[in-house]
């Protein structure tokens, strides 16, 4: 199948102009032998990604819905040890991400590690950085290794959208706290008289920006509109994502996925369940999900609410050799970016990728594998247009000219968050593992992971295939 990717055709946006370009897409093609410049570590020592795993990513409200988040995380952590036949005693430290926290397990890193049977002598802490939380877990681990604090780190993340905390209203909470302290019947009755039925309206959580109150979907719709990304371009990109994910799933490329026998569910969960290849006609019929009635973001060209967990193990190359382990990749470099969370909320890749390339002395053509988080199809296309715009790159990145457009034949070749799913804090490890495994299968050398996150933040990471690595 050939995809003719039209999003970079020379349409004039109201805020930027984009060069005319049509890119032929050859799914799952094997790249030519890598010619990229050799890379080196910025950390004074080589840090390797030995392996990583994830639970199948499931649409929220499906087979995981009766679990608690630490149980999902437990499965990822335990499977990581089992798959790699690792002795739990070798793990020095655990860093784990979570965005929407279960209040009972606020340090979910520790609770999941204890539940998974890690040594109780292994410290663990939880990080949160919205959709890049497990990237933050990995890079926190890299920092601990680089500073010689520890040698062996487990990093990962979990998100559980099937059961999010729904709170009483502030007024109801205040009343309940006061009632808890009331000592006499008189005090209790006096408090009761202040109760109003309106207090019972719950506070429902939203996938929204705290500082502006705007949902991610609404912001993505504005971003798509600012970059003149049409509805059909978004649907075409979404279809590409689902088609490629289905192909990769059918070919057994998702070797990071560890099947899960969920208690109370008859069948073993062994596949991501959000991958759905539709026709362009059925996609075109869907109504806008956020900006109604004229928005362009729908349920099919947005990432969906997902349950899932991931975990990976990183260490010094020296330690991996000592333990006789076969790493997948070197973790070469990373950086974070942040900008205005109102108008530039989801442009993390457009800011992070050029900065990473400049920091590492690489150019777009040196990269054999791009794994970029797909929050929304419109957001991805806006990021591509931004990087291919002289105006954007001069105005916002301070460059003398545009960065250009990455080779889309090397872009998210196994689908992405739109199709595989996006359990917020688990996605970063999935991106790193797909990069590492794609570099192996596609015979590449260097891969870039990039993602946007709530708060207007973003990450970019450089990964290099480890010599002799296998994609199992
Ligand atoms: C940096 C960041 O990553 S920010 C975080 C980004 N992610 C988000 O913010 C999450 C955004 N997503 C969401 O909030 C939700 O998934 C929504 C609001 C878009 C959609 O939620 P829902 O309405 O519950 O979706 P639902 O699964 O019911 O789908 C709605 C309709 O679209 C249809 N649909 C969904 N996906 C597809 C598809 N791939 N192909 C065809 N039809 C589809 C469904 O069948 C359904 O049709 P129906 O109404 O006829 O039954």
TrEMBL record:
Gene Ontology MF terms in the entry: acetyl-CoA C-acyltransferase activity
GO biological process entries: fatty acid beta-oxidation
Superkingdom of origin: Eukaryota
Keyword check for Transferase: yes
Species assigned in the record: Drosophila lebanonensis (Fruit fly)
CDD domains noted in UniProt: thiolase
Localisation per UniProt entry: Mitochondrion
Full protein name: acetyl-CoA C-acyltransferase
């Amino acid at each position: 199948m050939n995809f003719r990717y039209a999003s970079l055709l020379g349409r004039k946006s109201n805020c930027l102009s984009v060069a005319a370009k049509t890119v032929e897409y050859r799914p799952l093609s094997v790249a030519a032998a890598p010619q990229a410049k050799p890379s080196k570590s910025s950390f004074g020592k080589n840090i390797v990604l030995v392996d990583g795993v994830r639970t199948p990513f499931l649409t929220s409200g499906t087979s995981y819905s009766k679990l608690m988040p630490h149980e999902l995380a437990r499965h990822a952590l335990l499977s990581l040890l089992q798959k790699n036949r690792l002795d739990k005693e070798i793990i020095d430290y655990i860093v784990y991400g979570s965005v929407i926290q279960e209040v009972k397990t606020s340090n979910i890193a520790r609770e999941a590690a204890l539940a998974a049977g890690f040594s109780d002598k292994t410290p663990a802490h939880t990080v949160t950085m919205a959709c890049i939380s497990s990237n933050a877990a990995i890079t926190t681990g890299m920092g601990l290794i680089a500073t010689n604090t520890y040698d062996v780190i487990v990093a990962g993340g979990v998100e559980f959208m099937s059961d999010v905390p729904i709170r009483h209203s502030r007024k109801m909470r205040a009343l309940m706290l006061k009632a808890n302290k009331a000592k006499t019947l008189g005090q209790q009755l006096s408090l009761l008289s202040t109760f109003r039925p309106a207090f019972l309206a719950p506070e429902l959580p939203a996938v929204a920006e705290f500082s502006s109150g705007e949902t991610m979907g609404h912001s993505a719709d504005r971003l798509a509109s600012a970059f003149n990304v049409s509805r059909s371009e978004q649907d075409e990109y979404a279809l590409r994502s689902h088609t490629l994910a289905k192909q990769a799933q059918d070919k057994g490329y998702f070797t990071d996925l560890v099947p899960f026998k969920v208690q109370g569910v008859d069948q073993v969960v062994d596949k991501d369940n959000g991958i759905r290849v539709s026709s362009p006609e059925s996609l075109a019929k869907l109504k806008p999900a956020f900006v109604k009635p004229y928005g362009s973001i729908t349920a099919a060209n947005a990432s969906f609410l997902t349950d899932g967990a991931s975990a990976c193990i990183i260490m010094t190359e020296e330690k991996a050799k000592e333990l006789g382990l076969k790493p997948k990749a070197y973790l070469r470099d990373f950086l974070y970016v942040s900008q205005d969370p109102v108008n530039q909320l989801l442009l993390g890749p457009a800011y992070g990728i050029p900065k990473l390339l400049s920091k590492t002395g690489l150019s777009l053509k040196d990269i054999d594998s791009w794994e970029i988080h797909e929050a929304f199809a419109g957001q991805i296309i806006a990021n591509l247009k931004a990087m291919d715009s002289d105006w954007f790159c001069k105005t916002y990145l301070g460059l003398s000219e545009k960065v250009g457009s990455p080779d889309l034949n090397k872009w998210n070749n196994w689908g992405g968050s739109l199709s595989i799913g996006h359990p917020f804090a688990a996605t970063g490890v999935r991106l790193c593992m797909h990069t590492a495994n794609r570099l192996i299968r596609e015979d590449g050398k260097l891969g870039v992971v990039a993602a946007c996150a709530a708060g207007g933040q973003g990450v970019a990471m450089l990964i290099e295939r480890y010599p002799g690595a296998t994609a199992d």
